[in-house]
Amino acid sequence: MKRYITNPPFSDSILKTVLFSSRHFASSAATAPLDLEDDIGGFTGASFGGIIQDKDLLRKTPNGLYVLGLIDNGAMDPNATLYNQLLKRCTQLGRLKEGRLVHAHVLNSSYRNYVAVQNSIINMYAKCGSPVEARKVFDEMAERDMVSWTAVITGFSQNDRAQEALGLFVEMLRDGFVPNQFTLGSVLKAATAVGEMEGRQIHAVCLKSGHGDDVYVGSALVDMYAKCGQMEEAKVVFDGLMSKNEVCWNALIAGHARKSEAAIAVRLFSEMKKAGFEATHFTYSSVFAACASIGALEQGKWVHGHLVKSGLKLIAFVGNTLLDMYGKAGSIEDAHKVFDRLVKRDVVSWNSMLTACAQHGLGRETVECFEEMRSRGILPNEVTFLCVLTACSHSGLLEEGLYYFELMKKLKLEPDISHYVTMVDLLGRAGQLGHAEKFIKEMPIKPTAAIWKALLGACRMHKNIDLGAYAAEQVFELDPYDSGPHILLSNIYASAGRLRDAANVRKMMNDSGVKKEPACSWLEIENNVHMFVANDDSHPQRNEVRRMWEKIADKIREIGYVPDTSHVLWYVDQQEREVRLQCHSEKLALAFALLNTPHGSTIRIKKNIRVCGDCHTAFKFVSQLVGREIILRDTNRFHHFRGGSCSCGDYW
DNA sequence: ACACTCAGAC
Where is each DYW domain found (predicted)? Predict the structure, then answer.
């Protein structure tokens, strides 16, 4: 067999690579599709003359080794087109090793200085994840054209090396090249990764060179503004595009999804379909993620309907997001159905199902699901254990939690800080405050603010003032601008009757400029989202809503509700505190729901911060009074109120 | 014959 390495005109490093690769493929029966020597044995150059035109030639060995064998054997004369086809093949299949072999062949041929072939080589290295090799070929070229520049810039842009891509772009301009739509598409992607300033500068270049309305450049621009959070500007660019495709629609929709603007994302999805574009898995995934973030169940279901009609398979890529959406929107039943119907489940599918169970306080079911996962031979990962530990923590399964933490380490999975936070939470909620403190002292990584926040939360739950104050001090040190811990500490003092200390924490907060996130609750009725903020008068039905709550409050008092004003911070008299308490956003939302939804239907309310103790009690009484299920989504879990009790068992 | 845009979930 003729070896092409006998008289190498190319550099040592490539030679070594080629030798290595060549041996590798020859010796590895599992990866080499066929033995080159056997495959071409007995044929002569002449008999292969016609095969060069044969479209099946490259298909015989998809990675091109077959053809390289023919060339090696002298059975076939290559030309520039053939090399380009081979390189394209390697690029499409992401075959770096075979690509290097073709590169070596080219260097040994008379086509080594052909710009088009060199460009294909650059492109091959760029797409196969090796921008450095692409750059090396580029640097050694005697002459470069637009395609060379674009290919090498794209190499860095697509391999998360945006700064180098932008650097090359500047060099290109310095060399006198005027960028075209191909270059600008890639450069914009790089600029987007670097920052808003850079993005805007490249936008200016696009406008100057007249490529601003190309659909590729335009999509990249829409994405750039969307990633900066500048949705108005993204929309201006989008509207200015004469011809659109699914990419620019997806970029715009994903931008709104990132900002949790579910209503807009859903509306755009609908407009996209009306305009005649097919929603892809990515489109669905973005829209479901948007619905998940605000718990928009009805809108999510509506889009799910479109997915079913579209005929797209329920693969994990979109199914996992859909499952997550149902979990976060409060329908554990629908989450289960999606899980059952998935074409193929991956570890994330299982993790999402576990998360959904955990969020709904179904600790036992989570553990059962995890055991089923293991019995089916699915390998759990770090996230799996985080789900299980969270479930144990939320359901008070102390022993199980400790067991699974040890199991995790036994399976050689290293707990990260999130697992330690969950363990502190687990121990703390279960009332093992001393154990939790000891756990923190002994953990192998430095405790973060989140660790101390978990301990602080447990101290509030079990009314431990001293340890709570200590934990709060640690949090203030590590994360001074979070209002949550201030409020927690203040509540600890207030519920122990130490109102002066509570007021001091409040004052400290004000002095250091820490702002409390305004509490708000919202619910969805017939595709509209109604939002309520405590003591807020902006809703059109506010007077009706308030009167309704007063009526309800009177009725639940008759069956045992006693307002608990201990968590009201304001240093005001008892009557005023009670008035404030009755205006909490979740109570307003509940009153609104009772006014505007059919009798007997499930009420679903979402809240941006943890539900207050008094509202939790009131909701239990209301569920008994009206005989309806009320599902309240907290920051990280669900409360299902039914018949006077809550699924969390008052353990949250 | 060679170069471009978006991109889910725990």
Answer: 560-652
Nearest to A443 by CA among A470, A409, A395, A393: A409
Q: Are A178 and A210 in contact (CB under 8 A)?
A: no
Q: Which pair of tokens denotes residue A647?
A: 């699924």
pLDDT of residue A649: 79
Give, in Å, how far the C1' of B10 lies from the CA of A630: 26
Residues 27-86 of chain A: which lie with beta carbon within 7 Å of strand B? 80-81, 84
Exposure on the CB side of residue A243, measured as CA atoms within 13 A = 5
Beta bridge partners of A529: A524
Which nucleotide's C1' atom has the smallest distance to the CA of A280?
Answer: B7
The model's pTM is: 0.83
HEC profile of A146-209: HHHHHHHHHHHHCCCCHHHHHHHHHHHHHCCCCCCHHHHHHHHHHHHHHCHHHHHHHHHHHHHC
Tell me, yes or no, whether A537 and A456 share the same domain: no
Residue A376, domain member (yes or no) = no
**Residue A569: band (very low, low, confident or very high) from pLDDT cuts 50, 70, 90:** low
Residues A22 and A125 in one domain: yes
Q: Which chain A residues 322-381 have CB under 7 A to strand B?
A: 324, 346-348, 351-352, 355, 381
What domain range is A618 assigned to? 520-646
- Beta-strand pair A603-607/A630-633: parallel
Check if residue A191 sits with its Cβ under 7 angstroms from strand B. no
- Amino acid identity of residue A448, one-letter, is T
CA angle A349, A355, A360 (to 5 degrees): 135
Tens digits of residue pLDDT in A468-478: 999 999 999 99
Q: Which of A433, A439, A481 is nearest to A456 (CA)?
A: A433
A526 and A584 co-located in one domain? yes
